[in-house]
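Ticket #471: bound-state structure for adenosine-5'-diphosphate.
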Amino acid sequence: MSKVKLDKKTLNFKLWTYFIGFASTIMIILWLLQIVFINSFYEYMKINEIKKIGDQLVSQYGSVDFEEILIEKSFSEGISINILDESGRLIYPLEFFDIIRQPRLETNTFSELLTRLYKSENNTTIYTRDDSRLKFPVLTYGAILENPQSTNYFLYINTVIEPIDSTVSVLKNQLIIITILSLLLAVGLSFLISKKLSKPIVDITQSAKNLMRGNYNIEFKKGYYTEIDNLADTLNDTTAELSKTEDLRQDLISNITHDLKTPLTLIKSYGELIRDISGDDKEKRDYHLDIIIQETDKLSHFVDDMLDLSRVQSGLKSLEIKEIDLLECSQKVINRFNYYIEQEEFQFSISSKGFTKILGDESKIEQAIYNLVSNGINYSKDNKKILISVEGSDQWVRLAVKDYGEGIAEEDLNRIWDRYYRGGKLHKRGKTGTGIGLSIVKSIVIAHEGKYGVESVLGEGSTFILEFKRA
Ligand code: ADP
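RESOLUTION: The complex was predicted; output attached.
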C-alpha cells in the first residue's frame, strides 16, 4: 500500500497550522488568566483595594467628619472598619451597650497587629490571617493613627477573602466550549480560506500544463485577488506571443518547404535537360547552367539567412562596443553590393549631415544596414534606386534607407519586424525570403538601445529608419 505523504509546503497546510496556532495561543492565554491565575489575581486586587481605602482613611484622620466617612466607607465597600486604642479596646464603632461592655480585640490578634505595625516602615501593614470563627481567611489592614497630644489609635480594617471557585468553575465550562468552538472555527476558516487562495493557483497550474503540451487555446483565469490577476494577465500575454511565434514558425516551415523545393526542382530538371538535350549545344547549355547557378545562389542566400539569425542572436550577448561612423559603415555595406550596381544597374547614393558617429558593435550595425539594403533591392521593381542618409542631432544619429519599390501595406507595417513574418502575401511565392531579416535588424537595434521604424506607401517605396545615441 502506498503511503500518503503530507506536504507541509502547501498553502492549505500552512494556513491550517497558522490558524490553529493562533487560536491555541489565544486559548492558552485565556486559560492562564481565567483559571490558573485567577485566585492570585483576585487576591492582588483585594489587597490593592483595601490598601487604597486604608491609606485614604489614614490621610483623612483628624477631619471633622471622619466618623461619617468611616460609616460611609464600611457601607459602600461592605467591609468592617474598626478604630482601637492602645490597649486593643474598640473606639469605633460603638453601640449603646458597648459603653458598658467596653469590647476589646482578642489579645493574640491585637498583639500580632501591633508587632506587624511597629515593624513596618510606613506605619501601615497588610496581611492575611485565619479567624477561628470564620470559614475563609481574612485580609487585614492596619495603620497607626497618630495623636500628638494623647496616645495613638489604630485603624483596623478586615475583609473576608471568599474563594472564587464557583466563578472559576462557571468560567471553566464556558472556556471549554469557547476552546472547542474556536478550534473548530480555525480549522473551518483555514480550510475555506486556503481553498479560496489555492484554487486560482491550482487553475493556473492546470492551464500552464496544457500550454506545456502545446495547446495555445487556453486562458489563464483571473479572479479572487490582484496578484493572481496580474499573473494571469502576464501568462495570457505570454501565451499570445508564443502562439503568434508558433503560427509564424509553421508558416515558415511551409515557406521553407516551398522555397527549398522550387529551386531544387529547377536545378534537377535543368540538370536533366543538359544531360539529355542541350549538352552539346553551347548556347542552350550555358543558358540552362545560368539558371542552375541562379537557383543555387537563391538556395545559399536562403540558408545564410537562417544561419544569420542564430549567429546574431548568440552574438548579441557580447557586443564589442566602440566608436564607429555610420557613414563609413554604410559605405562598406554598399561596396558589398557592387554586383547589383554592375550587373543589375542599381543606383546607390549616400548623403550625410552633421555628426555621424555612434557607440556600437561595427559588425552588427553593418549587418543591420546590410539587411535593410538587401530588402530594398529585393523589393524594388523597375526603379532601382536606393538612398542612404545619415543625419546627426544633439543626441541621436539617424540612418535612413529609402527605396522606390513595391512598398508595404498598412496592415503589415507593424508585423514585418516579427520573426518569420513575411508581408505582402501577393508576392509571397515570387521571392525567396525567410521573414528573418528585419527581426535581426530589430534585435540589433534593441541591443544598442536604439529605435527603429518604417514609413511606406504601397506602390511607391519604403524608408526604413534606425536611430542610435550619438557617441
Ligand atoms: P524577408 O525579406 O525574408 O521576407 P524580412 O524580415 O527582411 O523578411 O522582411 C519581412 C517582410 O517585410 C518582407 O516579407 C516584406 O513583405 C516586407 N519588407 C521588408 N523590407 C521591405 C521593403 N524594402 N519594401 C517592401 N517590403 C519590405
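RESOLUTION NOTES: The first strand starts at residue 80 and ends at 84.
TICKET STATUS: resolved
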